[in-house]
Amino acid sequence: MPTARINKSTVDAVRVGSKDVFLWDEKIPGFGLKVTPAGSRVYLYQYRLHGGRGAKVRRYTIGKHGALTPDQARGEANRLSMLVAQGVDPQSDKIERKRQTIDLAFPTYLDAFAKDCLAPNWKGSAGGVEAMLRRYALPALRSKALPEITRVDVAAIMRPVKARPALASKLFAVLRYLFRHAVSEGDLARSPMDGMKSPSAPAARDRVLEDWELALIWNGSAAVADPFGSMVRLLMLTGQRREEVAGLPWSELRQTDAMWKLPADRAKNGQPVDTPLSTAAVLLLTALAKGGNWPRRGWVISTTGKVPFSGYSKAKKRLDAEIAKLNTGEVLERWTLHDLRRTLATGMQRLGVRFEVTEAILNHVSGSRSGVAGVYQRHDWGPEKARALQSWSDHIEGLLTASDKSNVVQFAEARA
């Protein structure tokens, strides 16, 4: 077989024959050029992995001439010869590199991670967690393969959220979970976050809204376009989690016995819960349904009826602006939608509701529902929950009717 130093001159000089013609490099054993009868020029590397001359000859296609220069092909042949010297089969290396480029590219891996890990393990909050990763991690990592991600990359992801401790802690925890999962699946040898210090934990929130603040929020929500205004009032009346209310489908609601049946796969803690609906909650939902019977499909809190509501941030800013108008221009001290849940829990204690009933309403699995007590105490507190939520609803109604009537949204007009 002819041999020569493979360069542009020798490659161009090889003539097309009636069958494949080979030119082998005189410096790198196994590095060659194949010229097909159709005139295609392809660089290749031929090798035996083990056993000397008795071993099977294998060929690895480096690439076509034109897409690669002779020098580029030579560099790849050098790399392949070093792999063979180390006992690594270039074909296996090629498969692994392809896997990293395609399967382990971060966007592809994130899709699989969301389906296989977030959906079953993060329950009702899976959508929000996935959206957070797509917002902050994707722009920083683009299509980088998991094994190529470094601490520097993780730091770049975290940089935009440094001033937001709660978000930073959550994002850090989710990223750490993702990389640990990759290690457990054999997709990574080591997490790039090993040794990284967690962000400082945010100060525990203990904000409990005053009665006058609840009235302001209720009335301010009437001036905000639905579905967000109704969502805020439903949060206030039920004490359920934001994601659970925002993603509420009509199919979970029973109008005949005024009940919301949250399934386990939508609950944050994976525990199903029945929430009795107070008179005010029923009026609010009936208004959202445009009166009459409630629908059996679609989303309750939705601008289109086709997808759940998700634009919390902008809607919350509009609500705060409306509250300020009602409050003589004063902005309400920093508060969050989750404070409505804490306020309901605290308010129920003031109303004399048993702690176990409050925990059952909040669907907590700690406290009175944990350990041995949680195993043997199986009463669901259904009647007690209904009475407690109606008492809370009556309390809010009392706050509103005690206010200036010109600024009050009556419960019978639950949807402005």
From TrEMBL:
<protein>
    <submittedName>
        <fullName>Integrase arm-type DNA-binding domain-containing protein</fullName>
    </submittedName>
</protein>
<keyword id="KW-0238">DNA-binding</keyword>
<dbReference type="InterPro" id="IPR050808">
    <property type="entry name" value="Phage_Integrase"/>
</dbReference>
<keyword id="KW-0233">DNA recombination</keyword>
<dbReference type="InterPro" id="IPR038488">
    <property type="entry name" value="Integrase_DNA-bd_sf"/>
</dbReference>
<keyword id="KW-0229">DNA integration</keyword>
<dbReference type="Pfam" id="PF13356">
    <property type="entry name" value="Arm-DNA-bind_3"/>
</dbReference>
<feature type="domain" description="Tyr recombinase">
    <location>
        <begin position="203"/>
        <end position="391"/>
    </location>
</feature>
<dbReference type="InterPro" id="IPR025166">
    <property type="entry name" value="Integrase_DNA_bind_dom"/>
</dbReference>
<dbReference type="InterPro" id="IPR002104">
    <property type="entry name" value="Integrase_catalytic"/>
</dbReference>
<dbReference type="Pfam" id="PF00589">
    <property type="entry name" value="Phage_integrase"/>
</dbReference>
<dbReference type="InterPro" id="IPR010998">
    <property type="entry name" value="Integrase_recombinase_N"/>
</dbReference>
<dbReference type="InterPro" id="IPR013762">
    <property type="entry name" value="Integrase-like_cat_sf"/>
</dbReference>
<dbReference type="GO" id="GO:0003677">
    <property type="term" value="F:DNA binding"/>
</dbReference>
<dbReference type="GO" id="GO:0015074">
    <property type="term" value="P:DNA integration"/>
</dbReference>
<dbReference type="GO" id="GO:0006310">
    <property type="term" value="P:DNA recombination"/>
</dbReference>
<comment type="similarity">
    <text>Belongs to the 'phage' integrase family.</text>
</comment>
<dbReference type="InterPro" id="IPR011010">
    <property type="entry name" value="DNA_brk_join_enz"/>
</dbReference>
